[in-house]
Protein backbone atom coordinates (compact mmCIF):
# COMPACT_ATOMS: atom_id res chain seq x y z
CA UNK A 1 0.00 0.00 0.00
CA UNK A 2 2.81 2.40 0.87
CA UNK A 3 4.47 1.55 -2.41
CA UNK A 4 1.30 2.45 -4.35
CA UNK A 5 0.95 5.72 -2.48
CA UNK A 6 4.52 6.63 -3.34
CA UNK A 7 3.85 5.90 -7.01
CA UNK A 8 0.74 8.07 -7.01
CA UNK A 9 2.63 10.90 -5.35
CA UNK A 10 5.44 10.70 -7.89
CA UNK A 11 2.99 10.66 -10.79
CA UNK A 12 1.19 13.71 -9.39
CA UNK A 13 4.51 15.53 -9.00
CA UNK A 14 5.46 14.68 -12.57
CA UNK A 15 2.10 15.98 -13.77
CA UNK A 16 2.57 19.24 -11.92
CA UNK A 17 6.07 19.67 -13.30
CA UNK A 18 4.91 18.85 -16.80
CA UNK A 19 1.95 21.24 -16.55
CA UNK A 20 4.13 24.06 -15.24
CA UNK A 21 6.54 23.77 -18.14
CA UNK A 22 3.64 24.33 -20.55
CA UNK A 23 2.46 27.43 -18.66
CA UNK A 24 5.65 29.50 -19.10
CA UNK A 25 4.87 33.05 -20.28
CA UNK A 26 5.72 33.89 -23.88
CA UNK A 27 8.86 36.03 -24.14
CA UNK A 28 8.39 39.79 -24.18
CA UNK A 29 10.22 42.33 -26.28
CA UNK A 30 10.95 45.95 -25.45
CA UNK A 31 9.69 48.74 -27.67
CA UNK A 32 11.79 51.80 -26.84
CA UNK A 33 10.63 55.18 -28.13
CA UNK A 34 12.93 58.07 -29.00
CA UNK A 35 12.37 61.67 -30.10
CA UNK A 36 14.43 63.42 -32.79
CA UNK A 37 15.45 66.11 -32.01
CA UNK A 38 15.16 65.39 -28.33
CA UNK A 39 13.37 68.63 -27.43
CA UNK A 40 10.83 68.45 -30.26
CA UNK A 41 7.98 66.52 -28.65
CA UNK A 42 6.71 63.65 -26.55
CA UNK A 43 5.84 60.02 -27.31
CA UNK A 44 3.65 57.37 -25.70
CA UNK A 45 3.13 53.66 -26.23
CA UNK A 46 6.52 52.12 -25.54
CA UNK A 47 7.05 49.20 -23.16
CA UNK A 48 7.39 45.44 -22.97
CA UNK A 49 5.08 43.39 -25.21
CA UNK A 50 4.66 39.93 -26.67
CA UNK A 51 5.20 39.08 -30.31
CA UNK A 52 2.12 39.91 -32.34
CA UNK A 53 0.77 42.51 -29.93
CA UNK A 54 -0.65 45.54 -31.71
CA UNK A 55 0.16 48.72 -29.83
CA UNK A 56 -0.75 52.33 -30.46
CA UNK A 57 2.10 54.81 -30.64
CA UNK A 58 1.48 58.54 -30.40
CA UNK A 59 3.83 61.45 -31.07
CA UNK A 60 2.91 64.97 -29.98
CA UNK A 61 4.90 67.97 -31.21
CA UNK A 62 6.05 70.70 -28.87
CA UNK A 63 5.42 74.32 -29.75
CA UNK A 64 7.37 75.45 -32.84
CA UNK A 65 7.85 71.87 -34.07
CA UNK A 66 5.78 69.60 -36.30
CA UNK A 67 5.71 65.81 -36.65
CA UNK A 68 7.30 64.21 -39.72
CA UNK A 69 7.53 60.43 -39.37
CA UNK A 70 8.12 57.30 -37.30
CA UNK A 71 11.25 55.37 -38.24
CA UNK A 72 13.14 52.25 -37.20
CA UNK A 73 16.72 52.96 -38.17
CA UNK A 74 16.52 54.24 -41.73
CA UNK A 75 13.20 52.48 -42.41
CA UNK A 76 10.15 54.76 -42.40
CA UNK A 77 7.19 53.14 -40.68
CA UNK A 78 4.51 55.81 -40.78
CA UNK A 79 3.93 59.48 -41.46
CA UNK A 80 0.95 59.52 -39.08
CA UNK A 81 1.58 60.87 -35.58
CA UNK A 82 -0.61 58.10 -34.14
CA UNK A 83 -0.34 54.64 -35.65
CA UNK A 84 -0.68 50.96 -34.74
CA UNK A 85 2.57 49.00 -34.52
CA UNK A 86 2.77 45.21 -34.54
CA UNK A 87 5.41 43.90 -32.14
CA UNK A 88 7.98 41.54 -33.64
CA UNK A 89 10.38 39.03 -32.11
CA UNK A 90 13.15 41.41 -31.03
CA UNK A 91 13.73 44.56 -29.01
CA UNK A 92 13.37 47.68 -31.13
CA UNK A 93 13.90 51.43 -30.89
CA UNK A 94 11.38 53.50 -32.81
CA UNK A 95 11.98 57.19 -33.39
CA UNK A 96 9.44 59.96 -33.76
CA UNK A 97 10.97 62.57 -36.06
CA UNK A 98 10.04 66.23 -35.94
CA UNK A 99 11.10 69.35 -37.82
CA UNK A 100 11.36 72.79 -36.34
CA UNK A 101 8.95 75.32 -37.76
CA UNK A 102 10.59 78.22 -39.54
CA UNK A 103 8.61 81.01 -37.93
CA UNK A 104 9.42 84.64 -38.56
CA UNK A 105 7.86 87.81 -37.16
CA UNK A 106 7.98 90.72 -39.59
CA UNK A 107 7.24 94.32 -38.74
CA UNK A 108 5.69 96.56 -41.36
CA UNK A 109 7.22 99.71 -42.86
CA UNK A 110 10.38 101.13 -41.28
CA UNK A 111 9.85 99.24 -38.01
CA UNK A 112 13.15 99.12 -36.14
CA UNK A 113 11.82 97.07 -33.21
CA UNK A 114 10.76 94.07 -35.26
CA UNK A 115 12.62 93.07 -38.42
CA UNK A 116 10.59 93.47 -41.60
CA UNK A 117 13.03 92.00 -44.13
CA UNK A 118 13.61 88.27 -44.64
CA UNK A 119 16.46 86.43 -46.30
CA UNK A 120 15.15 82.98 -47.22
CA UNK A 121 18.57 81.72 -48.27
CA UNK A 122 20.22 82.75 -45.01
CA UNK A 123 17.24 82.20 -42.73
CA UNK A 124 17.88 85.67 -41.33
CA UNK A 125 15.79 88.77 -40.70
CA UNK A 126 16.77 92.44 -40.69
CA UNK A 127 15.14 95.62 -39.51
CA UNK A 128 14.86 98.66 -41.76
CA UNK A 129 18.21 100.13 -40.70
CA UNK A 130 20.04 96.85 -41.30
CA UNK A 131 18.40 95.68 -44.52
CA UNK A 132 20.17 97.98 -46.97
CA UNK A 133 23.50 96.49 -45.88
CA UNK A 134 22.23 93.03 -46.89
CA UNK A 135 20.66 93.84 -50.23
CA UNK A 136 21.89 90.71 -51.97
CA UNK A 137 20.34 88.50 -49.28
CA UNK A 138 16.89 90.08 -48.83
CA UNK A 139 14.09 88.16 -50.57
CA UNK A 140 10.89 89.35 -48.88
CA UNK A 141 9.70 92.35 -46.91
CA UNK A 142 6.49 93.18 -45.08
CA UNK A 143 4.61 96.46 -45.41
CA UNK A 144 1.27 98.12 -44.80
CA UNK A 145 -0.48 99.90 -47.65
CA UNK A 146 -3.83 101.64 -47.68
CA UNK A 147 -6.23 99.45 -49.65
CA UNK A 148 -3.99 96.39 -49.47
CA UNK A 149 -3.56 96.20 -45.68
CA UNK A 150 -0.66 93.94 -44.67
CA UNK A 151 1.25 92.75 -47.71
CA UNK A 152 4.45 90.94 -48.68
CA UNK A 153 6.70 91.87 -51.59
CA UNK A 154 10.38 91.99 -52.50
CA UNK A 155 12.89 94.72 -53.40
CA UNK A 156 12.46 93.82 -57.06
CA UNK A 157 8.80 94.79 -56.91
CA UNK A 158 9.96 98.44 -57.04
CA UNK A 159 7.25 99.56 -54.63
CA UNK A 160 7.56 103.27 -53.88
CA UNK A 161 6.08 105.61 -51.33
CA UNK A 162 6.34 103.10 -48.49
CA UNK A 163 9.81 103.33 -46.97
CA UNK A 164 10.48 107.07 -47.13
CA UNK A 165 12.43 107.45 -50.35
CA UNK A 166 15.88 107.66 -48.75
CA UNK A 167 18.90 105.74 -49.96
CA UNK A 168 17.97 102.91 -47.57
CA UNK A 169 14.56 102.58 -49.23
CA UNK A 170 14.45 99.24 -51.12
CA UNK A 171 13.23 101.13 -54.17
CA UNK A 172 16.67 102.80 -54.27
CA UNK A 173 18.83 99.74 -53.65
CA UNK A 174 21.39 98.75 -56.26
CA UNK A 175 20.66 95.03 -55.76
CA UNK A 176 16.97 94.13 -55.91
CA UNK A 177 16.00 90.48 -55.64
CA UNK A 178 12.55 89.66 -56.99
CA UNK A 179 10.31 87.13 -55.25
CA UNK A 180 6.98 86.13 -56.79
CA UNK A 181 3.92 84.92 -54.85
CA UNK A 182 0.71 83.06 -55.58
CA UNK A 183 -2.04 82.14 -53.15
CA UNK A 184 -2.58 78.41 -52.57
CA UNK A 185 -6.18 77.30 -52.06
CA UNK A 186 -5.66 73.57 -52.61
CA UNK A 187 -3.72 73.11 -49.38
CA UNK A 188 -5.36 73.08 -45.95
CA UNK A 189 -3.71 74.43 -42.83
CA UNK A 190 -3.46 70.89 -41.43
CA UNK A 191 -1.81 69.66 -44.63
CA UNK A 192 0.60 72.58 -44.62
CA UNK A 193 1.70 71.73 -41.09
CA UNK A 194 2.71 68.20 -42.07
CA UNK A 195 4.86 69.13 -45.08
CA UNK A 196 8.54 68.77 -44.14
CA UNK A 197 11.16 71.30 -45.15
CA UNK A 198 12.87 70.18 -48.31
CA UNK A 199 9.83 68.26 -49.55
CA UNK A 200 9.91 68.01 -53.34
CA UNK A 201 6.18 68.74 -53.51
CA UNK A 202 6.65 72.30 -52.24
CA UNK A 203 7.59 73.41 -55.74
CA UNK A 204 4.35 72.04 -57.19
CA UNK A 205 2.25 74.64 -55.35
CA UNK A 206 3.96 77.49 -57.16
CA UNK A 207 2.19 78.69 -60.29
CA UNK A 208 4.15 80.92 -62.66
CA UNK A 209 0.90 81.92 -64.37
CA UNK A 210 -0.75 83.04 -61.13
CA UNK A 211 2.36 84.50 -59.49
CA UNK A 212 2.52 88.20 -58.68
CA UNK A 213 5.13 90.55 -57.20
CA UNK A 214 2.93 91.26 -54.21
CA UNK A 215 0.87 89.18 -51.77
CA UNK A 216 -1.76 91.52 -50.37
CA UNK A 217 -4.84 91.68 -48.13
CA UNK A 218 -3.27 88.99 -46.00
CA UNK A 219 -5.17 87.31 -43.19
CA UNK A 220 -4.46 84.56 -40.68
CA UNK A 221 -4.06 81.09 -42.23
CA UNK A 222 -3.49 82.45 -45.74
CA UNK A 223 -1.11 80.11 -47.56
CA UNK A 224 1.14 81.42 -50.32
CA UNK A 225 3.70 79.73 -52.53
CA UNK A 226 6.73 81.74 -53.55
CA UNK A 227 9.81 81.60 -55.74
CA UNK A 228 12.87 83.71 -54.95
CA UNK A 229 15.32 85.32 -57.34
CA UNK A 230 17.77 82.42 -56.94
CA UNK A 231 15.09 79.80 -57.67
CA UNK A 232 14.22 78.70 -54.14
CA UNK A 233 10.60 77.55 -53.81
CA UNK A 234 8.71 77.86 -50.57
CA UNK A 235 5.38 78.07 -48.77
CA UNK A 236 4.17 80.69 -46.30
CA UNK A 237 1.32 80.45 -43.81
CA UNK A 238 0.05 83.45 -41.89
CA UNK A 239 -0.03 83.15 -38.08
CA UNK A 240 -0.78 86.81 -37.52
CA UNK A 241 -1.41 89.42 -40.19
CA UNK A 242 -1.42 92.85 -38.62
CA UNK A 243 1.17 95.62 -38.60
CA UNK A 244 3.42 93.07 -36.98
CA UNK A 245 2.84 89.87 -38.91
CA UNK A 246 3.98 86.35 -38.09
CA UNK A 247 4.72 83.72 -40.71
CA UNK A 248 5.49 80.01 -40.74
CA UNK A 249 7.47 79.20 -43.88
CA UNK A 250 8.92 76.11 -45.52
CA UNK A 251 11.45 75.80 -48.30
Order of helices and strands: HEEEEEEEEEEEHEEEHEEE
Cα-to-Cα separation, first versus last residue: 91 Å
| Largest sheet strand order | 3-1-8-5-6
Helical proportion? 10-25%
Strand content: 35-45%
Number of domains: 2
Coarse morphology: elongated
Please state the average pLDDT score.
83
Class from secondary-structure proportions: mainly beta
**Rg estimate, integer Å:** 30 Å
The low-confidence parts are: 5-23
Major sheet attributes: 5 strands, mixed
The total beta strand count reads 17
Summarize the structure.
The protein has 251 residues and is mostly beta strands. It is built from three helices and 17 strands. Strand 10 and strand 11 (124-126) form a beta hairpin.
Amino acid sequence: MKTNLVKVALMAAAFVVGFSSCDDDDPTYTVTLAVNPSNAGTVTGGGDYKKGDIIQLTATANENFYFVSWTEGTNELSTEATFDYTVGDKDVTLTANFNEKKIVTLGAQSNTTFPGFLSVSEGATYNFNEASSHQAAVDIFCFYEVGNDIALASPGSNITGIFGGTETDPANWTTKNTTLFNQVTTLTVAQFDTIPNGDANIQTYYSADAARKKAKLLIKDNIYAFKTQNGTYGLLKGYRCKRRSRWFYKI
